[in-house]
Design a protein that fits this description.
Layout: H1 3-10, E1 16-18, E2 21-23, H2 25-52, E3 65-70, E4 74-78, E5 81-85, E6 88-92, H3 119-128, H4 136-144, H5 153-170, E7 180-188, E8 199-208, E9 213-222, H6 226-238, E10 247-250, H7 256-263, E11 268-271, H8 273-281, H9 286-300, H10 305-319, H11 324-331, H12 334-337, H13 348-351, H14 355-360, H15 377-392, H16 404-408, E12 413-414, E13 417-418
Parallel strand pairs: 7-10, 10-11
Antiparallel strand pairs: 1-2, 3-6, 4-5, 7-8, 8-9, 12-13
Helix pairs in contact: 1-2, 3-4, 3-15, 5-15, 6-7, 8-11, 9-10, 10-11
């Protein structure tokens, strides 16, 4: 039955009891439409996750990230009634730097979700997935229900304008009363198709002296451009961030580092082990990536700098003759890959990677294949800002927050432990 036919019959047939609620045939059509949209979105998310990690294999060449059926059925409460769904499962056999298994968590349908997202989260997410303003009404109606207020394209445009003004005010806020001990930086390519796909969103987040993480900047620019990053950092300085952070964490393939040395020359540098591992493995044959990945883990999970140096030397001796480019990729950043050993051991898990940014922006990464129709660069910037502010409320504090004061006061740390001053 088409939606038009359903609408006709709904005026002639008494409401039926569906899922314990009185609902018309039209309601059921809308409910099924919302369910299909949700299922397709989650399936696409899982497929993208598996594709991203398809190069990661074990010593026998078998993929470490594969599909694994579906989870138990659960019910999501939405504006069009209850949606019963079985989310696809992923078998992820990779382990993190602490030896713990990775677990795929859907950003669209997280395990804890029992109600559909609020409009404040849905509109930015839908925009960055490529839905134009004119299609918002249909998409939001399916997810929130036909009686949800403010679903017209005009209302959405006005709401986006309010958020744009919020972003502009936030970008000029006073930071002079805050002290940041660490910062993380990364360049994020959003799913929305823009005119110049090399341009992206530059993101910086920081950790305050009480251990809370805070979004510091979201700028429009070029990931590899020193000038783009310098403008961002100088803006932060003008806003009052005069005292340099003690350490910055980021990927090596960015113009960020050259800019950091000009704006905050006293800030230490730590390269992201997540990015470095991927870069090194890409220079090795797939059959050897499983063993090499474990060898890389042995380096940055070592309990001391000396042990890490020895593990790095073993990697070099093992692979240098046959795969010199892989070793060169690792060796050239030896010093800045091991910088975290000069900071509290409680903080190592936070400092070895840019995961604080990676996990937040996983749902807005660029799909490499562009589709017709480009989005507004200003709107994309605003939407990423809104999603980040939503996520910021759930960021957890740094482990060992009580020792941050010692880092800020310039105390020396060796292999994660504070060096005790000699008694007079």
């Amino acid at each position: 039955m088409s939606q038009c036919e359903a609408a006709e019959s709904s005026s002639q047939v008494n409401p039926q009891v569906i899922d314990g609620e009185k609902r018309s045939p039209l309601d059921e059509v809308l409910r099924q439409g919302a369910l299909q949209m949700l299922v397709k979105a989650v399936e696409a998310e899982v497929a993208a996750y598996i594709e991203t990690h398809q190069h990661e294999v074990d010593e026998d060449g078998r993929r470490l990230v594969v599909r694994n059926g579906h989870a138990r059925e659960r019910t999501i409460v939405s504006g069009v009634g209850q949606l019963k769904i079985q989310a696809p499962r992923v078998d992820d056999r990779r382990v993190d730097e602490q030896g713990q298994r990775f677990h795929f968590t859907s950003q669209i349908l997280p395990p804890y979700l029992r109600r559909t997202k609020s409009v404040e989260e849905l509109i930015p997410w839908l925009y960055l997935k490529g839905i134009s303003t004119g299609d918002f009404s249909e998409a939001l109606e399916a997810l929130l229900g036909p009686d949800a207020p403010g679903l017209s394209a005009t209302t959405v445009v006005r709401l986006k304008d309010v958020w744009r003004r919020e972003y502009e005010a936030w970008s000029k806020r006073d930071l002079s009363g805050q002290r940041f001990v660490y910062i993380w930086a990364d360049g994020i390519y959003s799913n929305v198709r823009l005119d110049d796909e090399r341009q992206c969103l530059l993101v910086v987040m920081g950790a305050l002296e009480d251990g809370r993480k805070q979004l510091l900047a979201v700028h429009d620019g070029f990931r590899e451009s020193e000038l783009s990053w310098q403008e961002l950092l100088e803006d932060l300085k003008r806003q009052g961030l005069e005292l340099p952070p003690k350490l910055a964490v980021g990927d090596g393939a960015m113009g960020f580092w050259a800019a950091l040395r000009k704006v905050y020359p006293a800030t230490g540098e730590q390269r992201c082990w997540l990015h470095k591992t991927v870069n090194v493995l890409n220079k090795l044959p797939k059959s050897m990536q499983g063993k090499a990945k474990k060898a890389l883990h042995d380096i940055y999970l070592a309990e001391s700098r000396q042990t890490a140096e020895k593990a790095l030397d073993r990697f070099k001796n093992l692979y240098e003759k046959k795969f010199p480019k892989a070793v060169e990729c690792l060796e050239k950043d030896r010093k800045v890959l091991l910088a975290f050993y000069d900071f509290p051991a409680e903080h190592w898990v936070h400092l070895r990677t840019t995961n604080p940014i990676e996990s937040t922006f996983a749902t807005v990464r660029l799909r490499q294949r562009r589709t017709k129709g480009c989005g507004s660069r200003e709107a994309s910037l605003t939407m990423v800002f809104m999603l980040a502010r939503q996520a910021e409320r759930h960021w957890r504090r740094l482990n060992g927050s009580e020792v941050i004061v010692h880092v800020l006061n310039g105390k020396e740390f060796k292999d994660g432990l504070m060096v005790q001053e000699n008694a007079a």
